[in-house]
Design brief:
With 322 residues, this protein is an alpha/beta fold. It is built from eight helices and eight strands; from the N terminus they run αααβββαβαββαβαβα. Helix 2 crosses helix 4 and helix 5 runs parallel beside helix 7.
Length: 322
């Protein structure tokens, strides 16, 4: 009898261990729920600052420049280390004068088999010259905040995602080309229109043959050392629940950076084309960037690792919160 009890006890312990292992395996492979596993402390603002510094070496990064291609190569090389499936969307855009411009959107897909998709996007092209600069309007525009900040923020997010358990949604990280318009002059071009995001929206079926992404969030100008993020009217109209969710998370992480106020006027950016394509989309931007906006003074010293970290950690928590 004593021997039988020992065998039964041994069998029970082995079965219990097997059950524990099976549960652990399921938990390891399953998407993380309810915001668990975000590990926001891994998101490093100083790493993102180094990313901005790297990108500034390629200035100008506007259409048809050497720096534009160097930026593409840099983004692709960084994404190659994350395990994401990286593809490019290439086409030729002809401006009003008939001049051709080679365009490239970069798409990095995390968990490509997950039918639930969320777009996280920014633009990587810059303005060709600092047209708002009172003293040097024809000088190259560095674009530390206006373009490099969004790229660095997404690349750091991609790095951290590669270290963490899978979030409940598949993420499509998109680096849009041509947001500064066909002349790369931003507001200095009276016929400004974004190029990369409308092209992507027009070819949405290439990436989403079944259902569309559940939402999209676009980042632009997010590194300013005195960061104050207000809610943007077009975004509130298109995706109010997601705006409120993002700002609630942000206010808990960095209350000094997230304001409940609304921007003084609507801002058209890459979220516009995505919203028009039927994807609830919102913009995260600090457009109050005077007197540095689109001048030669849009440089690294205007940026802050703390500001980048506030936005990046908010995004990370947002992606892990159903």
């Amino acid at each position: 009898m004593r021997s039988c009890r020992r065998e039964r006890g041994r069998s029970f312990r082995l079965a219990a261990r097997a059950a524990v292992f099976a549960i652990a395996l399921v938990l390891a492979l399953a998407p993380v729920a309810a915001g668990a596993g975000a590990r926001t402390e891994l998101w490093d603002g100083q790493r993102a600052m180094h990313g901005i510094a790297d990108l500034l070496r390629f200035t100008p990064r506007s259409l048809d420049t050497v720096g534009h291609q160097q930026t593409i190569d840099y983004i692709k090389a960084a994404l190659a280390k994350t395990g994401a499936v990286v593809t490019t969307q290439r086409w030729v855009y002809r401006d009003d004068a008939g001049k051709p411009h080679k365009m490239t959107n970069i798409i990095a897909r995390f968990q490509p088999a997950n039918p639930r998709r969320v777009i996280v996007a920014t633009h990587y092209d810059s303005i060709v010259r600092a047209y708002r600069d009172a003293h040097h309007p024809d000088a190259p525009m560095p674009g530390a905040n206006n373009s490099a900040s969004g790229v660095a923020m997404l690349l750091e997010t991609a790095r951290v995602l590669s270290l963490l358990p899978k979030p409940p949604v598949g993420i499509d990280m998109i680096f849009f080309d041509g947001e500064e318009g066909p002349k790369s002059l931003g507001a200095g071009d009276p016929n400004w229109r974004a190029l990369g995001s409308p092209y992507f929206a027009a070819h949405l079926h290439d990436f989403y043959p079944g259902r569309k992404p559940e939402q999209a969030v676009v980042f632009d100008m997010v590194c300013y050392r005195d960061l104050h993020l207000k809610q943007e009217p077009f975004s509130l109209a298109a995706a109010m629940p997601e705006v409120k969710k993002f700002w609630k998370i942000g206010a808990a992480i960095a209350p000094h950076a997230f304001s409940t106020q609304v921007t003084r006027y609507p801002i058209s950016d890459d979220q516009t084309a995505l919203s028009q394509a039927g994807i609830p989309s919102f913009l995260v931007i600090d457009f109050d960037y005077e007197p540095f906006f689109n001048t030669t003074q849009d440089t690294l010293d205007k940026c802050s690792g703390a500001s980048l970290q506030a936005v990046g950690r908010t995004l990370l928590q947002y992606l892990y919160t159903p």
